Amino acid sequence: MRVVASGEQSPASGPGALESLLERVAQGDQEAFESVYHAVAGSVLGLARRVLRDSAQAEEVAQEVLIDIWRTASRFDPARGSAMTWMLTLAHRRAVDRVRSAQASANREHRTALRENTPAFDEVSEQVEHRLEREQVRRCLESLTEIQREAVTVAYYRGRTYRETADLLGVALGTIKTRMRDGLIRLRDCLGVAA
Amino acid sequence: MTDADLHALTGAYALDALDEREAEDFARHLAHCEACTSEVRELQATAARLAGAVAEVPPPELHQRVMAAIGEVRQRPPRTTVLPLRPRWRPRGLPYLAAAACLALAAVAGGFAVQARHQADQQRSAAAQARQQAVRLTAVMSAPDATLHAGAVKGGGNATVIASRQLNQAALVYHGLPEPAGGKVYELWYSVNESMVPAGLLTPGRSDGTTLLSGGPRGAAAVGVTIEPAGGSPKPTTDPILLLPVSA
Which ipTM value was assigned to this complex? Predict the structure, then answer.
């Protein structure tokens, strides 16, 4: 995001507003954190709900992640990516950790049940409403091959490892790794994402 | 695993689809593979967009719990021991602008939260609309090409326009706008080729808030605000009390 003063025609290149805010958060600024909260809480909660499929757990994880953003803001390094990416990567890892530790305590039968209950991409995408950002992501997901799309969405929205994803989709391990990479690359190009 | 094998794992790593040990191995590999590092960053940014696409309106209780908690939580110190007085990446000579950007974003976020909560209290369709706004607002704010222009409003108050040409979407954040006399309303406009195209009305009776403009900023040079009779006008009947550029 570029910042330009009223009436000034030339933009000042620099960090985005969210990056500046995180920097203030790192210095203990609670007002700045409040703004960061409003910018990211919706995505953090939505993502946690996707991965955990349970309202109470999703809210717990979202709360942990948001507090973690406050706690570790000083570790954000703008040279390594945007503030939004940093926060959502944190959120995804936390949700995935939770879902995997729950899995670890379950038995093999649970795994079979999981396979039966895994929604196809269509079900996931059906809940993705026809909205601007959603629409763009959905459109881009549709430009992937079926196996690329399933590999990406099962791993990301359901928090599965590539082994589990391969197992669930009945695809060889080597293939699934490649499809995750190809799929994300195609998605990156379609969305016009820069690091 | 060979380096080539490891390189193929960039996608799985960005999706957090490696198990713990593999993720550690891969992170070590990243430390000496520049190409992988840059690819992983891009793929992580791509994955984050998948999260943005499932944004929802968080319940007010979550906000209360988190804000209450941070007062008690001790922050971790930065990893580096030498802390520059001025952060190295803030453009020098622009502290005011950076601060203005922060304030404007704070206003966006705060104003929107109130609005979102208010709407969620109404019916489902209103909640869906708020959700849509949350997604759009997040998208506009994090768009790589987003520009931010702030200015004072004639007659009182101030406003900031955040616009992304890529998304063809703009938002107006406003603060301290006085109630117009005689039941009149604030109307928003895009200035396109010297003519003014209506871009929606501000909610009457509210001095602070955030609104997404109807239509998009593509092709527009500026966003204007005028005071119009109740219900708005197809063309401005008064001079703009605010005019902010939307171009870079």
Answer: 0.82
